[in-house]
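Hello, quick one for you while I still have it in my head. I'm working through a protein record and want to make sense of it properly. Would you mind checking whether the tokens look sensible for this chain? I owe you a coffee for this, so here goes:
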Amino acid sequence: MTRDEQQDELDCREALHRIYHFLDGELTADRRVEIEAHLNGCSPCLSMFGFEAELRKVVACRCQEVAPTELRDRIAQAINHEHDQAAT
């Protein structure tokens, strides 16, 4: 593997790592521009970005049910119990 290929691979790994931050709107404007430029020039990364964006849309549309109050209460109690155990 040449140095350029290694650098491209690192760029792809970095871009794919930052896709989640990109989708969540957690990047600076400069970093967004860098990721957009990489995605525009790299079809495998662009494909992965499209998949992740579509997956988020499906999850957002299909996972809108609210947990029953009893379940939420049990979860809160379990969290409080763990927190209390960790504090002692």
In short: The chain has four helices and no strands. Residues 3-87 form a domain with the Arc Repressor Mutant, subunit A fold (CATH 1.10.10). The first helix runs from residue 3 to 23. The CA atoms of residues 24 and 57 lie 12 Å apart.
